């Protein structure tokens, strides 16, 4: 199998799997039980929280465990909106967010009467920071942008965005979806109020996420329950997942620079090979882009047909984000970039990791060439 869809998810690292199984076997006790084994489990959860906090250079009480990054995004956005709605109901996001962010904003507008502004992007997927500067008002309570876009890889200048927001309105909270940046780019949270992370994008468990929430930011909980997660997220702690997250993050951060350099070379190699093929367009910008993601378009070829053609070679890439891959419409990210319709309609996403080899890239290129010969062009 040649897997080139690491943005959708990653395989579980063997050392994480081993630790997780040990934890599952040993620690079934409820972390909230008021007897010694319960205290032992909650102690391990708190140890993991404090390791994570150290790695992110934040306080332990600023780290909340969630069931996934989608939940972290929902909690950050709706929790902040509900908390500060008495101050104002104006919120801002971008036109290229993950569905968990985009649909949280949509719900806040449609169901709860918030006013949402969507920041535009240019042909390269870059935000217009002047537009942001002009949109922030006295009643703007929240801005949410991703760090790395999951479809084309464009990197947002999150610290420049933070300084624009906080200079215009120091009370506006800034949330960053860091899912595709963790283990790839440096994460500095000093000027960020809320940030979301996911374990399964960094060779960890599915169903395991994190929300960083600065101590001076308050949230209305979305899952009411007991005392878990400082009362901000009810539900019996998923102890083994939470305990193993610290190790997952440590492994990702320790290898970050090495993996980045390795994947950059692979990306460069694939880009240069693809550019030799007339008719292939590269959508991911050269500058300010994550090397882990390469979006291309092959106009006049249906992307789903090419994905399935490659599948016959046991090669796996995607058309767009996995969460929206079952909808056949154009990717909202590419639509927001106002690319030529034919380019937007024919996008494919290839994503790499340190496990990808150059030989796999060569096999992919050969299979792509053959598929383009065999698959019918749409006119
Ligand atoms: C940018 C981004 N945000 C959020 C998510 C959601 O992560 P999870 O699968 O942990 O809910 C993803 C996953 O595809 C993503 O790429």
TrEMBL record:
Gene3D superfamilies attached to this UniProt entry: 1.10.260.50, Aspartate Aminotransferase, domain 1, Type I PLP-dependent aspartate aminotransferase-like (Major domain)
InterPro entries on file: Aminotrans_V_dom, Aminotrans_V_PyrdxlP_BS, Cysteine_dSase, PyrdxlP-dep_Trfase, PyrdxlP-dep_Trfase_major, PyrdxlP-dep_Trfase_small
Top-level taxon: Bacteria
Annotated SUPFAM superfamilies: PLP-dependent transferases
Keywords noted in UniProt: Iron, Iron-sulfur, Metal-binding, Pyridoxal phosphate
Cofactor: pyridoxal 5'-phosphate
GO molecular function ontology, one term from the record: iron-sulfur cluster binding
Keyword Iron attached: yes
Domain (Aminotransferase class V): residue spans on this chain: 2-364
UniProt record similarity statement: Belongs to the class-V pyridoxal-phosphate-dependent aminotransferase family. NifS/IscS subfamily.
Protein name per UniProt: Cysteine desulfurase
């Amino acid at each position: 199998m040649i897997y080139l869809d690491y943005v959708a998810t990653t395989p579980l690292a063997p050392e994480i799997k081993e630790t997780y199984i040990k934890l599952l076997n040993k620690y079934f006790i409820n972390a909230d039980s008021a007897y010694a084994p319960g205290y032992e489990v909650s102690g391990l959860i708190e140890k993991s929280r404090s390791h994570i906090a150290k790695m992110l250079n934040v306080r332990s009480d600023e780290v909340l465990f969630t069931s996934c990054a989608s939940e972290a995004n929902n909690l950050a956005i709706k929790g902040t909106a509900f908390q500060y709605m008495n101050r104002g109901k104006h919120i801002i996001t971008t036109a290229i967010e993950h569905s968990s962010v985009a649909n949280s904003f949509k719900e806040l507008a449609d169901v709860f009467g918030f006013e949402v502004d969507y920041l535009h992007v240019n042909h390269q997927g870059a935000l217009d920071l002047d537009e942001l500067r002009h949109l922030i008002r006295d009643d703007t309570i929240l801005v949410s942008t991703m760090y790395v876009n999951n479809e084309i890889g464009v990197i947002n200048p999150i610290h420049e965005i933070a300084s624009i927001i906080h200079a215009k309105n120091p009370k506006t909270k800034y949330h960053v979806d860091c899912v595709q940046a963790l283990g790839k780019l440096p994460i500095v949270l000093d000027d960020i109020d809320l940030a979301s992370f996911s374990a399964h994008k960094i060779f960890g468990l599915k169903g395991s996420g994190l929300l960083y929430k600065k101590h001076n930011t308050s949230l209305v909980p979305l899952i009411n329950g007991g005392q878990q997660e400082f009362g901000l997220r009810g539900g019996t702690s998923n102890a083994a997942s939470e305990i193993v997250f610290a190790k997952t993050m440590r492994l990702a951060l320790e290898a970050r620079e090495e993996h980045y350099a390795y994947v950059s070379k692979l990306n460069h190699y694939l880009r240069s090979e693809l550019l030799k093929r007339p008719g292939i367009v590269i959508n991911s910008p050269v500058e300010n882009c994550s090397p882990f993601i390469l979006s291309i378009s092959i106009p006049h070829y249906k992307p789903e047909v090419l994905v399935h053609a490659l599948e016959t070679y046991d090669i796996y890439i995607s058309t767009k984000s996995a969460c929206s891959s079952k909808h056949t419409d154009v990717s909202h990210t590419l639509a927001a970039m106002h690319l030529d319709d034919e380019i937007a309609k024919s996008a494919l996403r290839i994503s790499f990791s340190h496990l990808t080899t150059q030989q796999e890239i060569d096999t992919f290129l050969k299979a792509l060439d053959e598929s383009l010969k065999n698959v019918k062009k749409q006119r």
